[in-house]
Amino acid sequence: MLEAFYGYIFQLFQGIDYTALFVMMLIESSMIPFPSEIPLLAIGINAAKGTMNPFLGLLISLIAIFIGASVNYLIWRYIGDRFFEKYGKYFMIKREAYHEAKKLYAKDATFYTFYGRLIPLVRQLMSLPAWMVRMPFWKFISLTLAGSSIWHIILISLGYFIGD
Questions:
Q1: 3-state SS string over the chain?
Q2: Cα(52)–Cα(50) distance, rounded to whole angstroms?
Q3: Cα–Cα dist 142/7, whole Å
Q4: Which of 29, 38, 49, 73 is the most buried (most CB within 10 A)?
Q5: Where on the phi/psi map is residue 53: left (φ > 0), alpha (ψ -120 to 50), or beta?
Q6: Mean pLDDT in residue range 61-82
Q7: Nearest of 131, 123, 125, 126 to residue 152 by alpha carbon
Q8: Phi and psi at residue 154, in whole multiples of 5°?
Q9: Predicted structure pTM score
Q10: Do 25 and 65 contact (CB within 8 A), yes or no?
Q11: Number of other residues whose CB lies within 10 A of the CB of residue 84
Q12: Are residues 133 and 106 in contact, defined by beta-carbon separation less than 8 angstroms?
């Protein structure tokens, strides 16, 4: 039974190429929840079969993360505070809670930005608090790429192990 499951997964993942990887990782790096596990495991599985290069897959995934995170950062730069001041109540975010969260995040923004990239569902949202505390763009993108690199290497390696 487990062999049949692996066969299904391998067949499913064979349809993922570098373009699909780029698009999926671009979506994943936006505010839209999308599991990075799917394309990254596929890269590892296909690399184990010799049909994809894991290093090229890692590079493409990080380029997509760079683009998506940069766009999110710039969007929140222009609408961040005004958006939460005006519409936060519709998301059940009180003004006081918003400002308290900013203070808490600001205390150790470097830690939260880096490790936030390793937590599913949280990683898609890291552009928002980084901008809220006015983290310099270069620092934000460096922490984003460092944390994302670790996550991507783990998933590609796991895919390689599964595929092997």
A1: CHHHHHHHHHHHHCCCCHHHHHHHHHHHHCCCCCCCHHHHHHHHHHHHCCCCCHHHHHHHHHHHHHHHHHHHHHHHHHHHHHHHHHHHHHHCCCHHHHHHHHHHHHHCHHHHHHHHCCCCCCHHHCHHHHHHCCCCHHHHHHHHHHHHHHHHHHHHHHHHHHHC
A2: 6
A3: 38
A4: 29
A5: beta
A6: 87
A7: 123
A8: -60, -45
A9: 0.82
A10: yes
A11: 22
A12: yes
Burial 36-47 (b: 16+ CB within 10 A, else e): bebbbbbbbbbb
Two structure tokens written together for 124: 């898609």
* Structure tokens that stand for 111 in this block: 């830690």
Residue pair 143/114 in contact (Cβ under 8 Å)? The answer is yes
- Reply yes or no on whether the pLDDT at 107 is more than 90: no
Average pLDDT in the 131-140 region? 87
| Average pLDDT score, the chain | 84
Q: Are the C-beta atoms of residues 25 and 61 closer than 8 Å to each other?
A: yes
CA-based nearest residue to 71, from 121, 141, 20 = 141
Confidence of residue 8 (pLDDT cuts 50, 70, 90): low
Position 93, amino acid: I
